[in-house]
Design a protein that fits this description.
Blueprint: H1 2-7, H2 12-36, H3 41-52, H4 54-70
Helix pairs in contact: 2-3, 2-4
Length: 96
């Protein structure tokens, strides 16, 4: 899933920004629910918590995308990059 998102052009910074927006939206939804609805503080808390729970998911996906962006070269080594292994000379007890 992360590779697919990366190929689609979604960057880690996009997910970090979505996480920060989620935090701001959680605060805003809590304040709006608290002031405009007559359901009380409990309902406002539920709205804030519901939206606020998205933030860790966005940050986790951002970290996974950052790893995908920085570790692309380590996926599968290509055989043409490496030379033939050279014969290793056995060591003696004297270390010579």
């Amino acid at each position: 899933m992360i590779k697919t998102m990366h190929k689609m052009g979604i960057k880690s910074n996009h997910m970090y920004f979505a996480g920060l927006c989620s935090i701001g939206l959680a605060c805003a939804s809590w304040m709006v629910s608290r002031t405009t609805e007559r359901a009380g503080l409990d309902r406002a808390d539920r709205w804030g918590i519901f939206v606020g729970e998205w933030a860790p998911t966005f940050f986790a996906i951002g970290v996974a995308l950052r790893m995908e962006e920085t570790h692309r070269d380590f996926e599968e080594p290509r055989m043409e990059r490496f030379e033939e292994p050279q014969a290793v000379r056995p060591r003696t007890h004297a270390g010579v």
